[in-house]
Every structure is written in C-alpha cells, then in structure tokens.
Predict the structure of FUSC family protein.
Amino acid sequence: MTWSSALRKTVRAGLTVERTRLEPLLALRAACGVALVVGLILWLGSPTLAVSSAFGAFAAGLVTFQRSWRPRPVLALGVAVGLGVSTFLGYLAAADHVVFGALLTVWTLLAGMAWALGPVSGLVATQTIAVMLVTVTLPTTVPGALVHAGLIAVGGLAQAALIVLVPIRPWGRQRDALADALAAEADYARRLRHDPVALFDPHPLMDAREAAALTPRQARSRPRQLGGPRGVAERLRPVLASLADPDVGAPAEGPERERVRDLLAAAAAVLDAVARAIRRGRPVRLPADAVAVLQVPEGGPVLHGAARRSALRLMALLGDVVEAADEPVRTEGGHGPEPRFLLRPSVPRLIPVGLRALRREARWSSAVGRHAVRSAVVVLIGYALGRALPLGHTYWAPMSAIMVMRPNFAQTYARGVARAAGTVVGVAVAGALMALAHPGEWVSAALAVVSVGLLYLLTNTGYSVASACIGAYVVFLLGIAGAGWSQTVYERVALTLLGGLLAMASYALFPAWETPQLRDRLADWLDANGRYALAVLAVFARPADRRPRRVREALLDQRAVRSAWEDASDRALHEPVRHRGLSRTAERGADAALATMGRATMLLEAHVPDAAAQPSKGAAEFAAALEAALPDAVRAVRERRALDWSGPRAALDAWREREGDDSVDVRGTELLTDALDELAVALSPGPGGRNRAARRP
C-alpha cells in the first residue's frame, strides 16, 4: 500500500462515527462524579483547586468505560493513585524547565512501556502524562502541590465510591460477553446449514473466558446464571462442525442432510433463547418447534454412524446449557468459589507478571519498546516547541501528541486526524459560547459537566466525537479558573495541529511496522496448530492416558496465537510498506490453510474415543511423523524455505492402507494433511511460486 492510500484510509477511519449501543445510566453516574467533585471543591475551595480535582474525576470516569474485566472501582482507584503521584512529582520539578523536561521524558518512557501490560494500562499511563502537563501550569507551592495531588486522587476515589454505592446493571459486561458467545454459536449453526465448512470466529469465546475470570470476592457474589454455560458452549462448537461436515458427518444431500439442517436450526434457536435469558437475567423460554426437532423422530433415527453420534451429543449439550442458564438469579452467599471458576490474580500478584512483560518488551525490535522511545522523544520536542512558540499553553502540543499516539501506525494516524478535527469543532463551539454568554464560575462548571457527560455517553462512537467533547470540556473547565476564551480557542487549535503532526511524523520517521513480522506470526500459528493437533491425536493413540487438560490448553494457545496473527495482519494491511517475503496472495492462502488445519483438528476433537477404547496405531504413527516434521516446518516458514510434509503424508497413507478410510479419525487426519499441503503451496518460494514479491494492495 502506498503512503497516499494509507493516509486516505486512516483519515476515513479517524473521521468515522459509528452507531453503537449507548449506556446513558453509566454516563450519567460518571458525570455526576465529576459534578460532585467540582461542585464541592468550588464551593469549599477555589476555582484553581476545582480545576485540579476535576481532572482526577474525569480521568477515573473515562477509564471505567474501557474494555477490562477488572472491577470498575479497582480501575478508578488505580487512576487516582497514578494521577496523584504524577501530579505531585510534576509540581516538584516544574520550577526548573530542564528538570521538568527530564522528568517528563522518563515518565513518558515508562508510560509507553505500560502498553506491554495491556491497552487499559497504557491508557491509564497516558492519562497521567496529560494531567502532569496540565496541572503543573496552575500556580501553587510545594504544600499546595500535595493538596492538588490529593484532590486529583479524591476525584478518582469519588468515582470508585459511586460505582460501589450506585451499581448499574451489575455483572452487565460479563452477561453480555457470555450472551455474545452463545449468540456467536447460534450464528455459526445457522451458517453451517448453508456452508458445511464455514469457519468460526473464536473471539467471542475468548472474551467470554476472560470475563469468567474472577477475583475471590467476585466469585462469592456472581449470579449462578454466569457459571456453567460458557464451558458447554466451548464443547458445542466442535460438535456442530462435526455434524455439518460432509466428510465426517451426514452426506451432502439426501434425507440425512435435511435432518442435519433441521437440527442446526433448532440448536441456533435454543442458543439464542439462552443468550437472551442470560443477557436480561430472566428464565429461559425455549421455542416449542425447536424442542420438538431436538428429539429422536417417531419413525426412528434418520442419521447413522458418526453423524448420529454427533446429533446425540448435540442434544445432550444443549440440554446442559439450558439447565446451566435456567437458574434463579441469586448469589453464592458466602459458600466460596466453585471449582470451575477461573480465579483472577489480585493486583499485588500481578506485579511479577507485569515486570516480566516489561522485560519482554524492553528491546529494540519490540513495537511497544519503540513506541515508548518514540513517545518520549515526541513529548519532549512538543514541550520544547510549546515553550519556544509565542502562544502560551506549553502543555497543549505534547498533550495532544501523547493522547493520539499508539503502538501501531493505523491507530496513531487515525486518532491524529480525529483529534485535530474533533478539537477544532469542540474548542470552536465552546469558545463561541464563552464569548457570547460570558458565563461565571458555576455556569462554566455546569457546561464542563455537560461536556464530560456527552463524552462518556458517546465515547464508543468515534474518537473525533470524543475529541470534540474533550476540547469543549477543557475550555469550560479552564474558564472556571478565569482563562480567556479567545486565547483558549486560537492557541489550542494551533497547538493541537502541531501535536498531531508531531505524532504522525514520528511514526513516519521512526516506525515499528507489522509487515516484516508476518512470517514470524504465521510460524507461531503453525506451531500452535501443530501442538493442538498432537494433543488431540494423542487421545486417539492412547485413550487410556487421555489428558483433557492438555487438549484444552493447546486449544487456548492456538486461539491466542491465531488472534495475534489476525490483529497483526489487519494492522499490516494499513501500512504503507512493501511486504518482506510474503505477498498478499500468499498471506491469504496461508491464512486459509492454517484455519482449515485448525478446523480439521476441531473435527477430530469432537470424536475423541473413550478411555476404554482401543489404541490407534495409525494415529500414533501419524502423530510421531507430525511431531518430527513440525519444528523444521516452523523454521522453514520463518526462513522462506519450502515446507516438507512427506513424513506425515507417508504415515497417513500407511494408516489408510491398513485400516481403510471409513473411520472418522482417518478422514479427519486426511483433512488436516490436505491443509498442510495447501500451506506448503501457498508459501512455496521462488519465481514460480505464489510468494513472489509484490506490492501489498
């Protein structure tokens, strides 16, 4: 993709306003937190203190709208602590511009590395930089700095208290995640009716698993409806695929295929009914026609063999998911967490995990590490330019830059455009109101609360809308402290544009492209797929030694690696660079082949034998051949060499000659081997292969 194409796409992405479900009650509660803090401090203290405290309440409220399964009070308290510390340190260094610049650079470097811990941690760290830049411009002494830092922390404490005292739809996000997973299974069942080899997006199941991880305190109060359906939904997916697949299930045409279509439609209706019940906290209401289909026909079974076994398994699992969800909405009441809970580590126990993540990303080749260095340099340059230019408000340019910078190119450029456009609109509208109405302190405070309420309400619709609300909020907030509207409008617009240009120029001059890493991501996905296949084949080879936990962990690893590949591929698609040994055609072919490999393994997993079954010599030999060929194949993907699957193919041929190709395990393994061959063709090197050098479209 050329630079012009990349810029056009990022501009469109930045200015896009999405229609999304609004959460007015949550927005109202967060806005009330800001109003409560600003009103009390303005009444009991001074306008300057009110402005300082408002930043804490604003940032704490904003972070609670981000995607995280941590309890919302914990997020608000974390923001309060971070903002208080950064504000006090900034005040101590503010007297000397050189010392403050050094502190700002080091703090920004550390904040940039916080993205290694996750997007919410990165956002919180970014907020601390913004508040450090803004609040130190308000005049005070060192004791006053303690007061300012304390008031900012009080703002976060107020938001945390409101979340605890005024709960709005408790467990709502967890309910939505589980309901979305079941709805995704229902959609998958419907698509399988028309496309028996349709692929499934595992992200809803991944989100549901993350949402199911609880702290011990949460585990004691979680509604029973959120306890069991997720695990059943995980087991449903391979059964649905196995039932629909014509190679291991019912024939492609005929009465058996019609019966399969009816079963899939009924399963989708049941899953949708359970999803609605969980989302709304109500009893399950099943459609009568779907219940009738999920019975053995009066004339006797229509399906035979593997398809009949899958159908019976599907009926049993659907009964389990209905039973698990159709419970009264009550709490455990102090009996302690159930064994199936995924316990989330406490904040202190996350410290070693965070330190390991930081060490892992503290390298020159890491996108997060380069983002941290890039951010530190840009903020320092922005601060120096802000002081050199005769515009005042030295903090606005570096603050605008750091608020739009992200570890990847597309987000940084899209947010830079959205920030500039939104700020111009927000500052212009707020400045016009200030010029025409000349509001006093209390009216300015009320307008600031209205602006922040709109921000909370519309934060998920687009960053340009959020930037407009933030720009208006800052204008009204500084109006409380007596800042003139005219200097607020013109200077902030100019400095916002400067900060956005600095952020975008930094990525052009010091990038961290995903495109050169795509082959490594593909190799990781191949390795994870292979480990998953080996775990499943081990059950066929030695049923008595079956270890479901090993299969489960391999599947989770495979999902995580596949998700990382998809994210990297999507980011690379928007980058203005040529590919490095992987054309767009080869990328699509490899993606399809590895997705098919995962699907074939999933079909095998749906038919793993019981512990009392006879060991399969063919499965053992094929697994040994695959395990021997996998490491070299992974290296070959990284090094752009041809892949050699002759060993697994020979083992499959010997297995088929010995046992025939009528069994499910042989047919599933053949699908897996075909996917490996397709991967070899997609990544075949040389001028005659599909991996010729070409510009990414």
